[in-house]
Amino acid sequence: MGPPGAGKGTQARFIAEHFKIPAISTGDIFRANVSEGTELGIEAKRYMDAGEYVPDEVTNLMVRNRIDDADAVSGFLLDGYPRTLAQVEELDGMIKFTGHRLDAVVCLTVDQDEIVSRLLQRAQVEGRADDTEDVIRRRQQVYLEQTAPLIEVYKARGIVHEIDGLGEVDEVTQRIFTALDVVPES
Ligand code: ADP
Predict the structure, then answer these.
(1) CA of 184 to the centre of ligand 1 (A)
(2) What is the DSSP letter of 159?
(3) CA–centroid distance for 51 within its chain
(4) What is the pLDDT of residues 28-58, one digit of tens each?
(5) Nearest Cα to 27, choosing from 111, 126, 108?
(6) From atom 3 of ligand 1, which residue's Cα is the shortest distance away?
(7) CB–CB of 96/65 below 8 Å?
(8) Of 20-24, 132-136, 142-146, minimum mean pLDDT range
(9) Pairing label, strands 77-79, 23-25
(10) What is the pTM of this model?
(11) Which residues line ligand 1 (CB under 6 A)?
């Protein structure tokens, strides 16, 4: 977890690679659907371009289908899900059914202003439609209102690792691995 631009996607790839599990990014799946012009993509685009969350029913169904894929049987990392309290409940139900368990929630903490400049930079590199300053600010606001409260829910379960997301990419990765007790490969 972490606000938009905290570096979730980047770190997710390293964690997933280490544990040999898929990194499932709802944002990436939505964007793939948008570029393929699927019905899901057309629906999601309206929300994404405005910096709003895609409705829970749409997102939940998509995640449910994705974690049913063969590569997720022995575990998975979720990037960008759950983002609402309703999604937390839905995820609990899904993994109860599949027999998985939530081992850890990694929260990346970063400074808001630092984030805006990172995202504006990303806009130049990746050209994401939702990386304009107005939409970035809206995404930050939606995150604070709807997603930040989830951290308390998971803290009450004792599975949250708060990680400082500022610094070089590999420094942040090391902090995460230390928190997750990953023994470095030599
Ligand atoms: P970021 O973390 O930088 O905001 P993402 O790629 O994770 O970017 O998400 C981009 C957009 O995709 C979000 O602003 C939202 O519209 C949509 N989205 C992604 N995950 C979810 C989710 N769990 N619930 C609802 N909408 C989502």
Answers:
(1) 31
(2) -
(3) 15
(4) 999 999 999 999 999 999 999 999 999 999 9
(5) 126
(6) 4
(7) no
(8) 132-136
(9) parallel
(10) 0.91
(11) 4-5, 8, 26-27, 30, 47-48, 51-54, 59, 80-81, 83, 87, 130, 139
CA distance readout (Å), 134 to 1, 22, 49, 142, 178 = 22, 32, 11, 12, 36
Neighbours of 43 (CB within 10 A): 16
Find out whether 70 and 85 touch, Cβ atoms under 8 Å.
Answer: no
Tokens 């948008």, located at residue: 34
Whole-number pLDDT of residue 186:
58
| Residue whose CA is at the smallest distance from ligand 1 atom 15 | 53
Tell me which residue of 12, 61, 40 sits closest to 180, measured CA to CA.
12
The domains found in the chain, sorted by start residue, are 8-177 (3.40.50.300)
Q: Which residues pair with 106 in a beta bridge?
A: 161
5/137 Cα distance (integer angstroms): 11
pLDDT at 184 over 80: no
- For the beta carbon of residue 51, count every other beta carbon within 10 angstroms: 20
CA-nearest of 40, 31, 11 to 131 is 31
Asked whether the beta carbons of 27 and 79 are under 8 A apart, the reply is yes
Q: Which tokens belong to 75?
A: 């575990």
The CA-to-CA distance between both ends of the chain, in Å, stands at 29
